[in-house]
């Protein structure tokens, strides 16, 4: 650190530098005041915030001038000063001092550049003609120094006749000075100059016909092409036409008129473009197209200005002024404008879709015809306008958002409530196909654009939006730019090249977004786990769990417990059964119980329809609900109901009827009748086992395996494909399990057969109680009044018809097994129902067995025939290519072969070669 004496000496020298040359008398006093002021300064005069702002502005200026390294160095130095010397009060003063010392730091950022700031002491002297002639003597007799002279009678097209008089550079300079002698012009008589001016104004000449020089015609043509009013040409609403009063003096009238009409046609085309540019446009795309066409017109007018300059300075490329040559040059420069005239004539005001379609069609035609001028004109306009139009589309493709200020052919559906579970189906929609809001080159891709955007919106609402870093080079604008690079070397038409590139971009975007969504659905939403839960709850994947649940439920039904379907008890039963099953969330299970029959429990238990009073629902999270539609749960419930009804019939046959048929002597009229009961038991049991094995093994398991494989296949490229696969799967499985409404007669026949299983079990297990169900005892014991009344009415009708046996008696016996029209079931699997079989008064156990066998045979035959008919119909009417989504063919769930296989299996219940005992 410098000593105090040294600092005082420096300050004295500093104060002396401030004082005037004349030394004041109180010099000592001034020195003391100055030193005292400096030493006691409070460092508050420099605005430290202004210094910081100047330094920040300097950093930004470095970045603007692409000097990022200098800006980074300045930033690091400031950070170091702030960290190590922030407590120094003099730091802002020093920085301000350095800023004042700096000189243009953007251009002079290096130390060595400071040398360039020093002024040069030596300046070169101006070069003189004597020095030039000393190095390279000029031959003044050379032809280059001779100026050509033209005859006054010759036209501009005549060859120039050089003068034989030699002129020197001094002479040339003297002539030029004489030509621009302004003083002489103003000193000339006013009448003489007025006469010359009147002669130049050819439009004021009298007479029906006026001849003009070629220079005058060229000037008029150039003025007309720039949109200025002229005398030779007349501008009307129909275009521009030549004025018949004027013709070129050195040409014939026909030639002159033909040449001027050709020029007028060119001017009409250019004037049409100029008039179109004055039309106001509301659309941003149309405004951009106007700007691009205006640039082409400006370039053309620049060419016209050069022609004007050549005439004024007499520097024509050919040395003479020729209307024909000028017209050729102007026509060559106007070719882009002529191309613009073709498309502008088809534009509709503020209709950018029609404009894009027009440009696209003409660009494709021009490229196919190798019209380079039109291609070079249309291609930049189309690419730039498409890039502007595609901005909201690319935002939709990448983020799933629709900008309200920039609408296109995808819009948000405001007619339906925005519920997250219907995001994929109801939130977004396309404009109607009849609406002209979709460009022709995007019509075949609009469905895929909608799908990609919905996938991005799905991911956005899941909080897992894909990063734009991997998609920045994909989209509509990127496809157009890539097409522009390929068009020069592509042998395909422009439209084919553009569609190929756009298809690749959209496919890549769809694959990326769908893969991300499938990963989220699998990992975070548990799609596979949910499907496994449906298999356990509805499709009987674990028979042990179902046995534990259904054994208690069936036991309560057989004991005629009215509360057998209490939803609270069943919920506890299901929760206890599935609590150790990992894929099943017991809290998501909901049991629904319905009481739709007024009949007694004794009647309702005799039919498997009673099981329709219980249904199980499983909660769907909103992401899963977009893939697995809530309506599919109803189909699952119908399939689960038919499987449950079959298990109900099998359980009664195996747990009760088997023991009585095999080990208990039944009260038959003849010993051989016991063999008949065993045969009927075998047939019923065989039917139930075959049916259940077919539905679980050949239908449910096969369909589910195929669905899982296709759902996780790489060929499934969109959410629409996933939805279609599952929808077709559950629809086909419902149809194959005889649960759909289209084959209700077959289901009714199946239910009747299952009810026969219950009827047979009741006959063999409680033969001693058969008389108790007859009218007399039934009323006394408080039985079902409606059922007993129905039995009494049928018995009375039989007695009135004469009772008896034979064929008439057998017909009456068959009638009592017909289905009742009073069935409470309104739909498939809805309602509890009741038994449709009634016991006659005087019927024995053997007769009832025969009735069961005959009715069973009749229903099986009808079921087999119906299955074969449905199988043929399914094969012949199955739509080829059904379930196509985004160009990908999905599997058609063919059930015809399933029905044929089931029919062949059920025919074995009554083999043709087997003799049936009676």
Query: Based on DSSP secondary structure assignment, what is the total number of beta strands?
Result: 10
* Oligomeric organization of the protein chains: single chain
Shape descriptor: elongated
Quickly count the domains. Answer: 5
Number of helices: 35
Q: Biggest sheet, in brief?
A: 2 strands, antiparallel
Give, in spatial order, the strands making up the sheet with the most strands. 1-2
Low-confidence parts, pLDDT < 50 over ≥5 residues? 153-180, 769-831, 833-839, 879-892, 913-918
Q: How far from one another are the termini? A: 132 Å
Overall residue-averaged pLDDT value:
76
Residues in β-strands, percent:
under 5%
Whole-angstrom Rg: 51 Å
What structural class should be given to the helix and strand makeup? Answer: mainly alpha
- The percent of residues in helical segments reads 55-70%
Could you describe the 3D structure shown?
By secondary structure, this protein is mainly alpha-helical. The protein folds into five domains: 4-39, no CATH class; 48-112, no CATH class; 202-344, no CATH class; 390-524, no CATH class; 529-907. The strands form five sheets. A two-stranded antiparallel ribbon has the order 1-2. A two-stranded parallel ribbon has the order 3-6. Helix 3 (48-64) crosses helix 5 (91-101) and helix 27 (630-663) runs antiparallel to helix 28. The chain is elongated. Mean pLDDT is 76; it is low at 153-180, 769-831, 833-839, 879-892 and 913-918. This is Spindle pole body component. Residues 531-874 form the Gamma tubulin complex component C-terminal domain.
